[in-house]
């Protein structure tokens, strides 16, 4: 669909907004010909439209008041002249109408709407609609949860509705071009989309681990049929919850990413450092933002180092302990209510609260690779431009050094940089050993010089 086609529905919505503004202002100022309320104006029918804007309105079942808020926030980006009527001056005071709110920016000639502007449109001619204003701007409002619009912070001491009504530029771009939204990784959304160029042959898993991983992909592929057509919805909750546990570098993150790649699902890794907060209630609020936004997206949520969030509960000997236990219960409930796939990863299964592990569909152990698996990992790692010297006994390397797949990739990186620095692509035995020694030092392990 061309950009012009995508804009048709937006133009119709902004034309309607312009009529609403003119009707609301005329009705409020008792102008002739504006005797009816703006709610009597016909709302654009988007039933048969397939644009991103129309799909958003229909999928979220936006009310007429939410559509007014969305169009008002969008107008400065696309049709700023729609808001010019708010430049009118009060003849009694010879100054702008206080009730219109809004801003005049030095570098922007148009009118910038505020929360007060929205309040005027919704409530000036009918104070009973104040409740609708509260719903549109509430934290649980879909437009707020999805970060489509927001109400900026006013200057200290000013009314809350003096805050600017802000439209997220990413959503403007999505409505205009149809390009898929990617949430920004920041404290307001503490998760980041992850992907990989690798394939399944790049992660070496034993048969048991791989069979358990395949259960996840089977659920993603056939879960809706099992729930609806097979009637399992009456007996089990939607969604799939699984724990990955094992030493660092054994493929937990890569496997989660490959599951998403295979099934066409976006994988978002939750930044635990941004979620956990020392203040009571803030951790739950931070996590809620993720689940609220992800709820209808079919995302795979991946919590690395999950024991920081979902660790064992303690005996409630203090108010902090009681709050920590309440927090754990809250997190468990949000995970159980999420209809998509949630993967928790930890280095130690024993650190996880039993309440989580009991209610998970799977617990998959990612063990350190054995000799044959390490041999495969070494061959895969050095199968490209960067290669090991033919005299190096790769199987003996695999047999001698117990390294994870992640550690082997670190060795590859070191060896590649060493080789290219001397204008070569063949890795010497000395460079390989130096790379391995670096990885051993990370775990405070040592090995002798004459081991080969």
From TrEMBL:
InterPro entries: 26S_Proteasome_ATPase (IPR050221), AAA+_ATPase (IPR003593), ATPase_AAA_core (IPR003959), P-loop_NTPase (IPR027417). SUPFAM superfamilies: P-loop containing nucleoside triphosphate hydrolases. Keywords: ATP-binding, Nucleotide-binding. Residues 238-370 form the AAA+ ATPase domain. GO terms for molecular function: ATP binding; ATP hydrolysis activity. Pfam families: AAA (PF00004). Belongs to the AAA ATPase family. This is ATP-binding protein.
